[in-house]
Specification:
By secondary structure, the protein is of the alpha/beta class. It has two domains: 130 residues, Rossmann fold; 139 residues, Globin-like (Orthogonal Bundle). It is 56% helix and 9% strand. Strands 2-1-3-4-5 form a five-stranded parallel β-sheet, sandwiched between helices. Helix 7 crosses helix 12 and helix 12 packs antiparallel against helix 13. The protein is elongated.
Length: 278
């Protein structure tokens, strides 16, 4: 079934009249029934007085009292079955955290194309809302998205002038990175493993030690290993920000702390192996 062709009742909220008009035209062309509101107060009246909506598309920053988070929270209270999408030209982690508290189902960046709007609305009810699915821990997130994470990390490494001078093909650069990520996730789940040299978890250290010895053979110096680790830390941070809506906030601070300590442990062990294999 083509979900994008299934008509839905949609409420679009934005203080920019032209934006709501364009979004209304795009969504009505798909066969949806669309109502628009240009203020928080108007959006609340629509949700109270109109028939239930299937989907809410609201801007985050709305001129006047309140904002998109207020609209989303009110929508969940007034119409619990409605799927809520928050739109923002300047998404950030703080807004993401507030969005989770407001039970927002998704956040996406403005300006959105007509195709993007239609796809978001068309698939809105084809998946469960985040309020109905389990939140993910960071180790699980690393495992689930490790292939995409490695590809993104590779791009940043190749773009780093200092690292690009070390001539390696893609296989040579990435050969054992997946094992490093899996071991990092395992370290995060076992606090004892976050201390370098823990005897009972030598197997997890082997990937980090292999990394250090292989990088030396490939012509890396200690600075190169540190720069690669910095790019990996940045790439993981970007992954977390993109998937913030999936993360279990009750463990978030602990997981982020363990992530950074775990990365540091792997770096220390890699550098030790780089020196010991000399």
């Amino acid at each position: 079934m083509d979900l994008s062709a299934t008509p839905r009742r949609v409420l679009v909220v934005d203080d920019d009249v032209l934006t709501t008009e364009l979004e209304q035209v795009a969504l009505e062309a798909q066969g949806n029934e669309v109502e628009v509101a240009n203020s928080v107060a108007e959006a609340l009246r629509c949700m109270v007085k109109r028939s239930p909506f299937d989907v809410l598309l609201t801007d985050l920053h709305i001129e006047g009292p309140g904002d998109g988070l207020v609209v989303a929270a009110a929508g969940k209270a007034l119409q619990p079955g409605m799927i809520t999408h928050l739109m923002s030209g300047y998404p950030d982690i703080a807004s993401g955290l507030k969005a989770i508290e407001s039970a927002v189902d998704d956040i996406f960046v403005k300006p959105a194309t007509a195709q993007t709007l239609r796809e978001r609305v068309g698939h809105a009810l084809a998946r469960p809302s985040l309020g109905k699915v389990g939140r993910e821990r960071l180790p699980a997130l690393l495992r689930e998205y490790r292939a995409a994470l490695i590809e993104e990390w590779y791009v940043t490494v190749e773009a780093d002038p200092s690292l690009a001078t070390i001539a390696l093909d893609k296989t040579g650069r990435l050969d054992h990175i997946a094992e490093l990520l899996l071991n990092l996730a395992a370290r995060m789940e076992n606090p004892q493993s976050l201390r370098p040299g823990t005897a009972k978890l030598i197997a997890q250290s082997e990937a980090a030690r292999l990394h250090g010895s292989v990088r030396r053979e490939q012509g890396y110096g200690p600075i190169g290993i540190l720069r690669e680790a910095a790019r990996l830390r940045e790439t993981i941070g970007a992954l977390i920000e993109r998937h913030l809506m999936l993360i279990d906030l009750s463990f978030f601070l602990r997981d982020v702390l363990n992530l950074n300590v775990g990365l540091d442990a792997e770096i220390i062990e890699s550098l030790a192996a780089w020196g010991l294999d000399g």
